[in-house]
Amino acid sequence: MAINWFKYSAPSTFYGVAGKMVPWFSWSAAILFVVGLYIGFFVAPTDIQQSEAYRIMFIHVPASILSMFIYLVMAGYAALGLIFNTRLSSMMASALAPTGALLAFLSLWTGALWGKPMWGAWWVWDARLTSELILLFLYLGFIALHASIDDPRRADRASALLAIIGSVNVPIIYFSVQWWNTLHQGATVKFTGTSMHVAMQQGMFTMMLAVWLYAIAVTLLRVRCIILERECKAQWVSELVEVRR
Amino acid sequence: MNKLSLIDLLSLVIRRDLVLAMRRRADVLTTLIFFVIVVSLFPLGVGPEMDMLRKMAPGVVWVAALLASMLSLGRMFSADYLDGTLEQMMLVPQSLSVLVLAKILAHWMVSGLPLVIMAPVLGLQFDMPTQALWVLIAALLLGTPILSMIGAVGAALTLGLRGGGALVSLLVLPLCIPVLIFGAGAVEAVVSGTSVGSHLSLLGALLLIALVFTPWVTALALRISME
Fold first, then answer.
1. For a surface tag, which of A64, A148, B69, B204 has the fewest beta carbons within 10 Å of its beta carbon?
2. How many CA atoms does the CB half-sphere of B24 hold within 13 Å?
3. Whose CA is closest to B77, among B21, B147, B155?
């Protein structure tokens, strides 16, 4: 039997599926958050060099990794929407953008809080910090372009093109910033993750999974709202229980 | 009627855009004067110590060039869009990418080239050594076309939108960061006595990549904006 891959690419079917998935993802995210924070705060030992301050890592690292990963996923959905002209892919791309921007911001914020006790400065023009900042700008550009075009189809396609250009440009920006940094100053403080304690690793992976599930849950919630907004004139929307109420 | 070759099309569009630009000389001059004013504001802001100014000069000139090139992006397609010429241009049997490339080149000649010519004079204000001035010119010659090309994509995406001017800067400026880094880096390298070649080669590489991809992407963006 051939599987119909496109069955759930119709907003009307995906709306219901997403609604069923949201509680699962949000509950497992909440449980993992509690477990991860417990490991992070109580189980993981105090670091010899960084004492208690390193514990912000349990938020910082997952947020940074997810913020980069979400950009790629967003660009992937945008490309799908552009190539196959599927409405849902573009909706997913625009639903992912705010979460990605939020995580990039969180990563910068927690990084600053971590940098102050460790490096003695809120902000260092380190290659990674700078490229994370630029990533936030790219997210904001995507959101701003999407918001300023009234026609949703044109907004989808224009911002999809921007997301693809951005994802092509990210490696170029990353390496140029890295070279620029090494030209200006020597190697800055590097985080040596090789000798990490097992409990720290477990805590970080749990938190990573938690943030990931949270991102999925929030994106699905947001995409449901976007579907309702875009399809508000469709027959199936007016037949929904929550709409009729 | 015989079909135009691509080269004919290229030169035709460039000549047309240059003639149009020369009939509105004020627009060209505004960009240039903006560049001069922004660069001249820096010493007033940070103080007249020559040592510091000499150190800042490459970065200041490059950032000002970046901002000045943002200023003129709005004009790249908007006039043609408003009077319907752009729609006719999209109907021509030749490749839209080549046509876009011609418009980008014309835009660079009008808004980028004057900056390159003006930059050494501003460099003198910052007491840059002669050798550094030559590298500055070379880096700007390689870099400003990239700014026009990346800017063209932004201009095409924001065609006819409200608040397009500020939006296009928000989209384009982060993408221009590599150009800024290598452009200013080249001048700094010559001042500090390290190799200039690597920076200029990287700028050249970026120029080639942009030359291949941006006209095509801009054409795509125009089709999205015009449908």
1. B204
2. 12
3. B155
Q: What angle do CA A151, A152, A153 make, to 5 degrees?
A: 95
Q: Helices (H) and strands (E) in chain A — how many of each?
A: 8, 0
pLDDT at A163 over 60: yes
CA neighbor of B145 nearest in space, from B174, B114, B118, B105: B105
Q: Which of chain A's residues have a Cβ under 8 Å away from the Cβ of B178? A: 169, 172-173, 176
The per-residue pLDDT for range A216-243, each reduced to its tens digit, is 999 999 999 998 888 888 888 777 777 7
pLDDT in tens, A92-107: 999 999 999 999 999 9
Task: For the full predicted model, state whether its pTM sits above 0.80.
Answer: yes
Q: Quote the number of domains for chain B.
A: 1
> What is the span of the domain harbouring residue B218?
6-226
Considering the domain boundaries, does residue B1 fall inside one? Answer: no
Q: Chain A: residue nearest B157 by CA? A: A158
Task: Report whether pLDDT(B197) > 80.
Answer: yes
- Whether B2 has a pLDDT exceeding 80, the answer reads no
Which ipTM was obtained for this model? 0.85
Shortest distance, CA B146 to any CA of chain A (angstroms): 13
At residue B125, the 3 state secondary structure works out as helix
Query: Which residues on adjacent β-strands are paired with residue A51?
Result: A47
Q: What is the pLDDT of residue A185?
A: 46
Q: How many helices (H) and strands (E) are present in chain B, helices listed first?
A: 11, 0
In angstroms, the separation between the Cα of residue A79 and the nearest Cα of chain B is 13
Does B200 reside within a domain?
A: yes
Contact B167, B161 (CB under 8 A): yes
- Write out the two tokens for A187: 């190697």
- Say yes or no for a CB contact (<8 Å) between A180 and B173: no
Q: Which residues of B touch A144 (CB under 8 A)?
A: 167, 170-171
